[in-house]
């Protein structure tokens, strides 16, 4: 570093050019940065590339292939969690789906019967799809009720519930 | 750019502006001059900025981008 500081402006510029750099005028205000540049060039090779090549930073993006496998093994686990919540019993997590399904049929209250026709839903993409469809139907039903009541001419057409 | 103070540059606030002024860079065009003398090299300019007034990476980037765009439009 001291040696670099003892260089004349001209010599410093020449040395920089020797490394392939293209320095501007070595002035009082620019000298210091150019000295540092020369130091970097002497120490490392990468610095030269930075000067001339466009800066692009590549961050690794996982392939789509890497993402697809995980969802499949996850779905049975999601199911198991649903089972766990309802049953409140510690289930063996390592069980294959068939045993979990059989547990469902044995112990379940009516709510989990919804998860029963699982094997077919699982093949098409898991529990979530089926549940989503059911929820959608419920929501559509309520929207329908609202729509009916919005019409000015008709009276209240909400179906009466006995014992309401 | 005209007679704008150095603090009007992107990334340069009161503190950094004060330090630049201490080094004699009191107007925006003087910093522009430095940028041009460094041949509009991004890394060199950022290094210089960091050395002269202690700008962090974001401030360096903002100031460089500001001057680069000005040059692209008007130089």
UniProtKB/TrEMBL annotation, chain B:
Localization per record: Nucleus
GO CC field: condensed chromosome; nucleus
A single BP term in Gene Ontology: chromosome organization
Protein's name according to its UniProt entry: Barrier-to-autointegration factor-like protein
Keywords (A to Z) from UniProt: Nucleus
One Gene Ontology MF term: DNA binding
InterPro entries on file: BAF, BAF_prot, BAF_sf
SMART domains: BAF
């Amino acid at each position: 570093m001291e040696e670099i500081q003892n260089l004349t402006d001209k010599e410093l510029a020449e040395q920089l050019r020797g490394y392939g750099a293209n320095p501007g005028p070595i002035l009082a205000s620019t000298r210091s940065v150019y000295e540092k540049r020369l130091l970097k060039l002497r120490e490392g090779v990468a610095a030269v590339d930075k000067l001339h090549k466009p800066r692009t930073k590549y961050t690794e993006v996982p392939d789509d292939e890497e993402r697809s496998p995980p969802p499949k093994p996850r779905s049975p686990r999601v199911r198991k969690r649903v089972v766990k919540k309802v049953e409140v019993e510690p289930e063996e997590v390592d069980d294959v789906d068939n045993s979990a399904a059989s547990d469902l049929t044995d112990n379940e209250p009516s709510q989990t019967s919804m998860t029963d026709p699982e094997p077919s839903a699982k093949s098409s993409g898991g529990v979530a799809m089926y549940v989503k469809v059911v929820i959608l139907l419920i929501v559509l039903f309520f929207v329908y009720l609202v729509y009916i009541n919005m019409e000015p001419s008709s009276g209240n057409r909400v179906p009466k519930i006995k014992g309401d | 750019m005209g007679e704008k103070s150095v603090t009007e540059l992107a990334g340069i606030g009161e503190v950094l502006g004060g330090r630049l002024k201490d080094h004699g860079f009191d107007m925006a065009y003087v910093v522009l001059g430095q940028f041009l003398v460094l041949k509009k090299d991004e890394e060199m300019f950022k290094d210089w900025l960091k050395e002269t007034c202690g700008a962090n990476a974001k401030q360096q980037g903002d100031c460089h981008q500001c001057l680069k765009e000005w040059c692209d439009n008007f130089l």
